[in-house]
Amino acid sequence: MPAKNRPLETGPTASPEPLGAAPGFPASAEAGSGCLPAGRPERRREPRYRAEGEVWLWPEGLQIPEIHGRLVDISRHGFRVAHQCQNLPAGGRVRFRHAAGQGAARVIWNRIVPGGVESGFLVL
């Protein structure tokens, strides 16, 4: 399977495979660099797939303008985006558009990384 379409391996038996930095972010902000601390169980229920391309997010009910970012990975029910908006609240809803689809999503988590922000979304 080509690297772009191969699932990301997760869990204790997975062999680590660096994803590389998201476009426009320093190497220290590599996707997947937020590895779980030792002893913390993996909670992901779906495989993640590498993804790339532009993402547009339109927060609903907030005074935040359109957010432009880069797709980092996707799963069957969600996706991760690297962007620059530090005001996007967890729990908020957004409309989105990227190469893999468009629709509505909920912000599940945000993480400040060197050079920007990463956010995880659940597609609604």
How does the SSE layout of this entry go?
Elements: E1 7-8, E2 48-50, E3 54-59, E4 67-74, E5 78-83, E6 93-98, E7 101-113, E8 116-123
Antiparallel strand pairs: 1-2, 2-4, 3-4, 3-6, 4-5, 5-8, 6-7, 7-8
Structural features, described:
By secondary structure, the protein is mainly beta. The chain has strands spanning 7-8, 48-50, 54-59, 67-74, 78-83, 93-98, 101-113, 116-123. The protein has a single domain, classed as Thrombin, subunit H, CATH 2.40.10.220.
Which features does this protein show?
124 residues; mainly beta; Thrombin, subunit H; 6-stranded antiparallel barrel; 0% helix; disordered N terminus
Question: Into which percentage range does the β-strand content fall?
Answer: 35-45%
- Architecture per CATH nomenclature, i.e. the level-2 architecture: Beta Barrel
- And the CATH topology? Thrombin, subunit H
H/E element sequence: EEEEEEEE
The percent range for helix content is under 10%
CATH level 1 name: Mainly Beta
Going across the biggest sheet, name each strand in turn. 3-4-5-8-7-6
**What does the main sheet amount to?**
6 strands, antiparallel, barrel
Write a brief caption for the model.
The protein is an all-beta fold.
